[in-house]
Amino acid sequence: MVYNGVIERYKEYLPVTEKTPIITLKEGNTPLIPASCLGSLIGDNFAVYLKYEGLNPTGSFKDRGMTVAISKACEEKATAVICASTGNTSASSAAYAAKAGMKCFVLIPEGAIALGKLSQAFIHGAVVLAVKGNFDTALKLAREITAKYPVTLVNSLNPYRIEGQKTASFEICDTLGNAPDFQLMPVGNAGNITAYWKGYKEYKEKGNSTKLPKMLGFQAEGAAPIVKGRPIKNPKTIATAIKIGNPASWKTAVEARDESGGLIDTVSDDEIIAAYKLLAEKEGIFVEPASAVSVAGLIKLTKNGYFKNLPITAYQLPIAIVCILTGHGLKDPERAIATIKKPRVLKPDLKVILKEMGYY
Ligand SMILES: *Cc1c(COP(=O)(O)O)cnc(C)c1O
Questions:
Q1: pLDDT one-digit tens code per residue, 109-164
Q2: For 328, which DSSP code?
Q3: 347 CA to middle of ligand 1, Å?
Q4: Index of the ligand 1 atom closest to the CA of residue 187
Q5: Per-residue DSSP letters for 143-198?
């Protein structure tokens, strides 16, 4: 069967009709990869899976929401869209707006966007406007503009974004045959945790799964408004995709946490980098720093004994843990290069090279 993107696959769960023009780049249908190395870290009763959302058309999960937001904007005869972005929303909106023949404006915090993401917004022809200030400032401006001018906001405040993004939880249930027991993910503007939780609940209501996962969200230590219980004026972290001080979906993220019996905790930049390297070196998966947050959280909880103290008999074994890997590593090549040692420059001499390889 030909795969035609998340709207066609899950349209009965989405706010679309026959009249909705479907703008798709065949997003979704991303792999759920068993993580043997991480699994052995936690214990025999656990199976860890990685939902690799970096394999979406523009390299992040934002495409799932964008196909619905842009399709609906198209249906409503919009000619222009705008978003504030830490990078991936701008890359995705630029690509889908290009496909739809719409104008796309993106407001980015000056100097805070990873190179790969910026190049995407540029090459897809978006009008990129860098704002002096952080993401929260840019989002406030985008909201003011869309309140008065004929431009559609495609940030996750747009409910169609959340609708599209919830399809990732459907895919996880379809692959596992049920919902997982635990889901770990990064939390930035908090639209995605909102979307997953909505999706899991809807799928269970429809009888497609019999349980709900505990939602375990993680913020970077220097950008952890939900954990600290107050907005952060100057959020700081190397994980630029979640460098957000005042999340738009704060309330629904807290609901997801509390209704599921989960938690929202912090991880440090050092823990993020350690998980980033571990994913690349042991699991063969290259993600951007914000995506490594899920695995950093998994390692932190494992060390804390969170999984050790579970009432094992209450579970069907193995206990399924899913970590969401939200974006591709090539989004932020500078971070990868800064994290590893530079290659040594050698004489073009076989002996010298073999010696370096440890064969001589
Ligand atoms: C947008 C984004 C996040 C954060 O998602 P929210 O919905 O803002 O919480 C995390 N990782 C990546 C790669 C992203 O692009």
A1: 888 788 899 999 999 999 999 999 999 899 999 999 999 999 999 998 999 999 99
A2: B
A3: 44
A4: 9
A5: HHHHHHSS-EE-STTSHHHHHHHTHHHHHHHHHHSS--SEEEEE-SSSHHHHHHHH
